[in-house]
Amino acid sequence: MVVHSASERVLAGLDPEQRSAVTAPAGPVCVLAGAGTGKTRAVTSRIAHRVLSGEVSARHVLAVTFTARAAAEMRARLTTLGVGGVQARTFHAAALRQVRYFAPRLLAGRAMPELLDSKIRLVTLAAAKAGLRTDRAAARDLAGEIEWAKSSLVEPGEYVVAAAKAIRDTPHEPARVAEVFAAYERLKRSNGVIDFEDMLRAAVWGIEEHRDVAEQVRAQYRHFVVDEYQDVNPLQQRLLGAWLGGRDDLTVVGDASQTIYSFTGATSSYLVDFPRRYRGATVVRLVRDYRSTPQVVGLANAVISQARGAEARLRLELVGQRPPGPEPQLRIFTDEPAEANAVAARCRALVDAGTPAKEIAVLFRTNAQSEAYEKALTEAQVPYVVQGAERFFERVEVRQAMVALRAATRSIPGETPLPTAVVEALTAVGWAPDAAPAGGAARERWEALAALVQLAEEYAATPQVLPIGPAASVERPVTLADFNDELARRAAAQHVPTVDGVTLASLHSAKGLEWDAVFLVGLSEGTLPTTYARTVEQVEEERRLLYVGLTRAREWLWLSYASARSPGGRARRPSRFLPQLDRSGGPERAGAAPVARRPERRRTQIVSCRICGATLLAGPDRKLGRCPTCPSDIDEELHERLYAWRQRVAGGQRVPAYVVFTDATLVALAERRPGRTEELIAIAGIGPRKLGLYGEAVLALVAGAAVDEICPEKTFEISP
Fold first, then answer.
1. Using CA atoms, how far apart are residues 312 and 72, in angstroms rounded to an integer?
2. Which CATH superfamily is domain 606-719 in?
3. What is the mean pLDDT of residues 370-385?
4. Sheet containing 61-65: order of strands
5. Three-state SS for 282?
6. Which of 182, 290, 367, 631 has its CA 20 to 30 A from that of 405?
7. Does 37 belong to an annotated binding site?
8. Which residues contact 256 (CB under 8 A, 6 or more apart)?
């Protein structure tokens, strides 16, 4: 009786979908869980319910996650629910534990080989043996390719064909990468070490090739739970299959719309195909979003509703559960410095109004974009932390470039234009201005140095002013020495340590996190989606990346992009993923007004349905303030009075009725029933002119006035 009561308490407070996931029968269960829908609560409650009801033993459950943080959170929640003894580990931690335990048996008494913390050193040696000179960034990219291949169960001799099929953006010719891969494997064996992929393979080999090991592992673990199943790679799936051994007591949790790590070998195909692989599987969809306001949820739904491809088949339309909040805002700026300064100013205002700095995030596509925001936040005296990367001036390539720039003052003529001098100096550290190299790390290094060139272009546009007397001065062009001093000043200002601050993070590193206020910046074509997204599948992954960013916000959401990278630069288009809103007018031109003026002139608001929270894109829907499929709450009596009033006014003015107000505007007035001028002018189609002509009369009608009081009936002569 006590056990039954405990298991029933686990169900308390769950919504109907969560309860369905928790109480699903033993066997294959697929939980499609959207962002903010309480997936961790559902999956831990399922484990606890099964244990407390006596259906399973805690020691027979293995819950697998992708991060140590997620595993720790799962263990903590299970403890709170009164369940101990469940193994909640990452794939790597679970495999390492098993390989270490069985090593004496599998290796004939020999000790388990040492596990490499990093591939970089051996990859650098392997590249040298293959005739390639590499720096640290290039070695990181080669290591990434080797990890992708091994996670995808690809051997060195199969790499060239596999890379071509996967349309990999390889750091070198695929044949050369295959040579490095093969040399790396040989070096590893000769040094008696293994890497993390070897460890997973060893766990698979131990189970698949040794019956006694398989029997012992499968006797220990009988019930499996896999979190973030859309991020599983083929090697991890192979290990999961070995653990299961043909059994099907498996619960997987995932969201295909958050598949953003395919470049590492992760694939959502196992999640997408789960119902076909396990006939009769229970599929539960969690769509109630407890994290974000309906306005944020509506925008996220609008963005992901345009998705195409296999992942879109499992797309979830979230339903916001929180009270309504502010509308997301879309801002357009003339250039990136103006965008960064406006973001910093808004962060300053939020902090001053009481929002903790740690509850604010600025998210961007690439780490190289962080410098402008580090500078702007520093100048606005807003503390910040960089998530998942070093601060701009702490990066190895930036420190090396600053050394090269200081050395170049002795070799480059002083009259050389600053941008030209900086480009010449950076060639000494291997940077070339024509095109970014292939490979993620090498490209990120290139973009960081390109950011220094952009800084030089901006700094060169501000000549130095030298006093030549009590009331006179003269301008002179900035020099490379001036620029070095400016970089040193910025580096010193941004090296101030902080404890809590605004989070600066790439969209990839933001996954799994959430904040009260989120700024999504740099949303222009070429940045999001990146120019390196060449296939339909790659573009769709970029869309999902924006979706992940949107769903990080609890309440306040800002989206922005700059029409040009730098003042006067080449014009850019907004990201194709943004809702197609009316963007009449143009962005403010930098330098056209005093410094005290706000950096942007125009604010484009994203209008959400006042009933369901979905983003409204069509003009008539935006006028009504609701989706065409949502129920109308029209005041029929008010609509009749508005209609009669319009007929009289149109007759008196001898114009068609629609010239006064369209039918859609009358419906919007009768549904939204504005009580103040501000509410009236918020309805699309009622501008300053019509407000002046008809505003007083409409407000009186809404307040209950009769048509005869507002517009006495008159007889008008109609000209033939």
1. 31
2. HRDC domain (1.10.150.80)
3. 89
4. 87-90, 61-65, 223-226, 250-254, 29-33, 282-286
5. strand
6. 367
7. yes
8. 32, 230, 268, 271, 272, 310, 311, 312, 313, 314, 315
Give 11's contacts (C-beta < 8 A, 6+ positions apart): 19, 22, 23, 45, 49
Distance CA 609, CA 626 (A): 4
pLDDT of residue 68: 85
| DSSP 8-state class, residue 228 | S
What pLDDT score was predicted for residue 133?
Answer: 85
Q: Percent of the chain scored above 70 by pLDDT?
A: 85
- Quote the pLDDT of residue 596: 34
Check: CB of residue 283 under 8 Å from CB of residue 32.
yes
Structure tokens at 130: 């293959």
pLDDT of 205 strictly over 50 = yes
Share the mean pLDDT of the chain: 84
Give CA separation, 429 vs 40, 397, 399, 425, 426, in Å. 47, 8, 11, 8, 5
The upper half-sphere exposure of residue 331, i.e. CA atoms within 13 Å in the direction of its Cβ, equals: 25
Alpha-carbon distance of 177 to 553, in angstroms, equals: 40
Cβ-based neighbour number of residue 618 at 10 Å: 11
Within 621-687, strands assigned E span none
Is 33 one of the annotated binding-site residues?
yes
Query: Within 13 A of 167's CA, how many CA atoms are on the CB side?
Result: 8
Q: What's the fold here for domain 6-105+203-286?
A: Rossmann fold (3.40.50)
The distance in angstroms from the start CA to the end CA of the chain is: 91
The amino acid that residue 113 corresponds to is P
* Strand 87-90 relative to strand 61-65, pairing: parallel
Q: What is the 3-state secondary structure (H, E, C) of 151-197?
A: HCCCCHHHHHHHHHHCCCCCCCCHHHHHHHHHHHHHHHHHHCEECHH
Percentage of the chain lying above the pLDDT 90 cut: 44
Binding residue per annotation — 34? yes
Report the SS3 class of residue 212: helix
Backbone angles phi, psi at 613, to 5 degrees: 90, 0
Of 599, 146, 66, 83, the residue nearest 345 (C-alpha)? 599
Give the residues across from 335 on adjacent strands.
564
Order of strands across the sheet with 502-506?
Answer: 384-387, 502-506, 360-364, 515-520, 553-564, 329-335, 603-605
Cis omega (within 30 of 0) for bond into 529: yes
Q: Which residue, among 630, 604, 614, 544, has the nearest Cα to 297 in the 3D structure?
A: 614
Using alpha carbons, list the distances in angstroms from residue 90 to 74, 87, 245: 11, 10, 20
Rounded average pLDDT over 172-187: 94
b/e 429-456 (16+ beta carbons within 10 angstroms → b): bbbeeeebbebbbbbbbbebbbbbbbbb
Q: How many residues does the chain have?
A: 720
> Binding residue per annotation — 165?
no
Q: Tell the residue number behind the tokens 């700095």, with chain if given.
A: 357
Residue 151: CB atoms within 10 Å: 20
Q: Is 355 annotated as a binding residue?
A: no
pTM of the model: 0.71
Residue among 488, 519, 368 at smallest CA distance from 436: 368
Which three-class secondary structure state does DSSP give residue 545?
A: helix
Residue in 642, 635, 607, 641 with CA at minimum distance from that of residue 621? 607
- Is 714 annotated in some ligand binding site? no
652 is annotated as contributing to ligand binding: no
